[in-house]
Design a protein that fits this description.
This protein has one domain (8-129). 67% of the residues lie in helices and 0% in strands. The chain is built from 7 helices and no strands. The chain has helices at residues 6-9, 12-31, 33-49, 59-76, 78-95, 98-109, 118-129. Helix 3 crosses helix 7 and helix 4 runs antiparallel to helix 7. The longest helix is centred in the N-terminal third of the chain and has 20 residues, at 12-31. It is globular and about 45 Å long. It starts with 5 loop residues before the first helix and ends in a 22-residue tail after the last helix.
């Protein structure tokens, strides 16, 4: 199930972008649940080690933002996506929510045709932080991202 807030659904561009973003996370899980789990650990712990990090620095989030922008542009048009992203940046700025503002700045400014290596980027983060973050499985093994997650 994908939950999308009512306020997000009120704007067709917001709905499409958000739905595509969350569907991309579903696809990421299906491709490699271990890779997504490692990214979730990064999502909740990276700020301890990189205080200026934002959600858009997390590889699965970065990829989901790029893919969702591509989908939203295809469905709603580039102009609508740019206007929506600009409005989100202004809203987050007015609310003083710098982290969400940074997320929307990334979304607004990244080209939807940008290629992104989510696996390579995740492996780089995991190698950097594997001694200080518990990823919930042995990330020192070759190709640790392959195979099912153990419960």
């Amino acid at each position: 199930m994908i939950y999308i807030r009512h306020t997000t659904c009120a704007d067709p561009t917001g709905l499409v972008a958000t739905y595509a973003h969350e569907l991309q996370h579903f696809i990421q899980h299906r491709r490699s649940a271990r890779l997504l789990r490692a990214n979730n650990v990064l999502y909740f712990n990276l700020k301890q080690f990189e205080p200026n990090a934002t959600a858009s620095d997390i590889p699965t989030e970065r990829e989901a933002n790029i893919v969702s922008k591509r989908v939203a542009e295809a469905v709603c048009g580039e102009e609508a996506v740019n206007a929506f992203a600009d409005a989100q940046v202004r809203l987050m700025e007015s609310l003083g929510n710098e982290e969400q503002k940074d997320r929307w700045v990334f979304f607004r400014d990244v080209s939807s045709s940008t290629g992104y290596d989510v696996l390579g980027s995740t492996v780089s983060f995991v190698e950097r932080y594997r001694t200080v973050m518990d990823f919930g499985f042995d990330v020192s093994q070759p190709e640790w991202w392959l195979g099912p997650l153990e419960d």
